[in-house]
Design a protein that fits this description.
This protein has 145 residues and is α+β, with helices and mostly antiparallel strands. The protein has a single domain, classed as Immunoglobulin-like (Sandwich). 16% of the residues lie in helices and 44% in strands. It has two helices and nine strands. The strands form two sheets. Strands 4-5-2-7-8 form a five-stranded antiparallel beta sheet, with no helix packed on it. Strands 3-6-1-9 form a four-stranded antiparallel beta sheet, with no helix packed on it. The radius of gyration is 18 Å and the shape is elongated.
Length: 145
């Protein structure tokens, strides 16, 4: 009987962890932030992409001047956002990514697994480029009313 309780508790915890996905439980509206980008001094953000599975993009907190944005909310409950600066003076700092988009997570029954993937593109002072690939574990999501 003791082993049964241990197994039952383990299975319960396992399925709760599967469904929580970085603390995001249940459908609803969520503000998305990047927890930390490890940028070098004078490194500039020149573009970024966001892909949402099992949800849609509702709003952007701000559209910076001299940036181009394209948002696609597909009928399959998948969404994408592609953004890039129009010229070098418009580069962003990592502060931009504090609650920068609001997404709506759809019920798992109709969409399958929920996920957010973000790629941030940067340029260094020597004009070399690099990118950061981020997933749910790198993000902070706050439930909105």
């Amino acid at each position: 009987m003791k082993n049964f309780k241990v197994i039952a508790y383990f299975l319960f915890a396992f399925f709760c962890a599967l469904n929580s996905q970085a603390g995001v439980t249940g459908p609803g509206k969520w503000a998305v932030s990047i927890q930390k980008l490890s940028l070098n001094e004078h490194e500039r953000i020149t573009a970024f992409k966001v892909n949402v599975k099992g949800g849609r993009i509702l709003t952007l907190a701000e559209i910076p001047e001299d940036w181009s944005f394209q948002i696609k909310n597909e009928g399959t409950h998948d969404a994408s956002l592609a953004a890039g600066m129009i010229h070098g003076a418009a580069a962003l700092s990592e502060n931009y990514f504090n609650a920068f988009i609001m997404i709506e997570k759809k019920p798992a029954i109709s969409t399958g697994k929920f996920d957010i993937l973000i790629e941030v593109f940067t340029v260094l002072p020597d004009e070399s480029e690099r990118s950061f690939k981020l997933s749910l574990k790198d993000l902070k999501l706050n439930k909105m009313n």
